[in-house]
Specification:
- This is Plasmid replication, integration and excision activator.
- It comes from Planosporangium mesophilum.
- The chain has a single domain, classed as OB fold (Dihydrolipoamide Acetyltransferase, E2P) (Beta Barrel), CATH 2.40.50.
- About 5% of the residues lie in helices and about 45% in strands.
- The protein contains one helix and 13 strands.
- The strands form three sheets. Strands 1, 2, 3, 6, 7, 10, 11, 12 and 13 form a nine-stranded mixed beta sheet that branches. Strands 4-5 form a two-stranded antiparallel ribbon. A two-stranded antiparallel ribbon has the order 8-9.
- The radius of gyration is 17 Å and the shape is globular.
Length: about 140
């Protein structure tokens, strides 16, 4: 029995980004393409029917290197998600935007690496983008 290509596998943010994540691009609509040209229509998720928005985040895990350091996250939402405000790195003029995602899931697919070679890859999805809770915050009941 295989996995339905419309199925998503739930995953907690803390498992996907154990050291947190930083937003490094704007949140933009994912557009549909036909024959290599944009149709002008926003793509909708085949499983939920919701519009797809996309952003790229930097994985803060110090052991992650190369292309795996940046992760594209697709947000399923009827309205354009609004990212949290950036914060200043103390003692510098640098601003970063730490983020967390709610309602995360992955959808596996088979990607061709080169002629005749394939690998299992996955797309990352979320329902919302939010600011991380302060480090000293402990949710009630924990």
């Amino acid at each position: 029995m295989g996995i339905n290509p419309k199925s998503m596998i739930p995953i907690r943010f803390e498992l996907m980004f154990s050291h947190g994540a930083q937003l490094i691009t704007a949140i933009e609509p994912v557009m549909e393409f036909e024959n290599g040209k944009s149709t002008g229509r926003q793509k909708v998720d085949q499983g939920t029917g919701e519009p797809i928005w996309s952003c790229t985040v930097l994985d803060n895990d110090p052991d992650t290197r190369g292309p795996a350091k940046s992760v594209k996250v697709q947000i399923l939402s009827r309205v354009q998600p609004v990212p949290p405000s950036p914060i200043k790195v103390p003692g510098t003029s640098i601003e970063v935007t730490p983020v967390e995602f709610e309602g995360m899931a992955i959808r596996p697919y088979v990607a061709q690496v080169m002629e005749g070679r394939y690998k299992v890859a996955y797309s990352v999805f979320a329902r919302d983008i939010v600011a991380p809770a302060p480090a000293d915050f402990t949710p009630a009941g924990k």
